[in-house]
Task: inverse folding
């Protein structure tokens, strides 16, 4: 098991290249299960979650290979319909094979998903959506067991207690591509990753419109064919490096950052006093004056992403004044608070609200990563803390950030990876 050693102090400067989006790549890889044709997916990030998805596809019988960010999948003749616990337990996005398997093979057995510990993340919307188009679904021995002789289009409202669900929307869209008739999803997720998935499905011959809006219409077709597609760049990685520039008082050019996907993040950072300039192929992010506190509420896209909440908290933790961060998507997603407190952050939790009183300086300390984005927040805090910060359990980071320490070092950070004694 690895750990990071971070020595705080340097202002980050230079250019960083974004990787492909993990949250986009995973459902797109699952979508290849819908066809017998060869699919070529480019700009796939070499992350542990991606490798887990490839293992699941191989277990199902798909011939799949990844080289230099290009995945070639040949699903013709696969017959496996079970995604086993030993793989699915490590990654919640594994559940997105449920819809494609059900549509293609008329049966699916997928272990209840695992992933980061960020509070309850029920699969009720997945079950609701697939049941509405004709699936018979049961939970047996820790597995979601689904079957359907013929999926049939229907109108489905997919909004949940905390907003729309990206993976449930993805699952239902994929299943509906091969259903008989028209499926209308109301309360659909609008995230760029859904738009990217639909773009790939359309290349495969699917008939879909309305993606990017809360109402998506899918007219089922008899079959889909293979296609080539390039995954969008990672907007959460972009946001993380934007905060890295702000928190260190640096000046970073982020290549491939899409301003159209980053509106809420840009708005909050500009309100805090961060200078952000749009470039031809990315953004330039600078801290040009003292920052001021801002109140942030996480919401479904296009609102401020829950996946950026921990990183924003790290920034507010060293911004003079008081800010309030409200978590509306996963109200219990505050595992990083206790670890930031070990570094001197002053944060009080009240339900789904974190009240942050900025301090002049954090101090390096041994801390433990609890989930993917919490890990990123601890790295950001370590970049400005006085002294040495030791971050263990960084395998969480490897699930979502490709070579983050190497990218940070090229920007001037003092960070290295070592073997942990854990």
Result:
């Amino acid at each position: 098991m690895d750990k990071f050693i971070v020595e705080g102090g340097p202002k980050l400067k230079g250019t960083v290249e974004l990787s492909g989006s993990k949250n986009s790549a995973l459902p797109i890889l699952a979508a290849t299960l819908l066809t017998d044709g060869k699919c070529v997916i480019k700009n796939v990030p070499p992350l542990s979650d991606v490798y887990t998805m490839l293992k699941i596809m191989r277990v199902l019988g798909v011939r799949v290979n990844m080289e230099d960010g290009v995945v070639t999948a040949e699903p013709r003749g696969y017959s496996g319909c079970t995604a086993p616990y030993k793989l699915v337990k490590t990654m919640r996005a594994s559940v997105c094979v449920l819809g494609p398997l059900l549509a293609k093979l008329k049966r699916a057995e997928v272990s209840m998903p695992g992933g980061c510990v960020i509070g309850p993340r029920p699969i009720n919307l997945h079950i609701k959506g697939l049941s509405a188009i004709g699936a018979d679904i049961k939970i047996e021995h820790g597995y979601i067991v689904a079957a359907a002789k013929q999926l049939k289009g229907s109108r489905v409202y997919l909004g949940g207690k905390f907003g729309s669900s990206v993976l449930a929307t993805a699952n239902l869209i994929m299943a509906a591509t091969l259903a008989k008739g028209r499926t209308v999803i109301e309360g659909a997720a609008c995230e760029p990753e859904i738009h990217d998935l639909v773009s790939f499905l359309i290349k495969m011959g699917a008939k879909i419109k309305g993606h990017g809006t809360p109402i998506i219409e899918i007219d089922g077709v008899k079959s889909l064919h293979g296609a080539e597609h390039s995954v969008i760049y990672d907007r959460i990685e972009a946001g993380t490096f934007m905060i890295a520039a702000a928190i260190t008082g640096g000046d970073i050019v982020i290549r491939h950052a899409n301003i159209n996907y980053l509106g809420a993040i840009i708005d909050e950072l500009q309100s805090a006093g961060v200078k952000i300039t749009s470039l031809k192929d990315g953004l330039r992010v600078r801290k040009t004056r003292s920052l001021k506190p801002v109140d942030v509420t996480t919401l479904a896209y296009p609102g401020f992403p829950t996946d950026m909440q921990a990183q924003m908290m790290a920034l507010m933790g060293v911004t003079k004044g008081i800010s309030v961060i409200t978590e509306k998507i996963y109200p219990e997603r505050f595992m990083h608070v206790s670890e930031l407190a070990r570094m001197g952050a002053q944060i009080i939790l009240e339900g789904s609200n974190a009240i942050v009183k900025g301090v002049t300086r954090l101090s390096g300390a041994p801390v433990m990563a609890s989930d993917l984005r919490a890990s990123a927040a601890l790295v950001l805090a370590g970049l400005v803390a006085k002294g040495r910060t030791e971050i263990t359990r960084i395998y969480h980071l490897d699930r979502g950030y490709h070579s983050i320490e190497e990218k940070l070092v090229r920007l001037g950070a003092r960070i290295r990876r070592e073997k942990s004694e854990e």
User: Anything to note?
Assistant: Residues 2-18+233-419 form a domain with the UDP-n-acetylglucosamine1-carboxyvinyl-transferase; Chain fold (CATH 3.65.10.10). Residues 235-248 form the longest helix (14 residues). The CA atoms of residues 51 and 66 lie 9 Å apart. The chain has 14 helices and 24 strands.
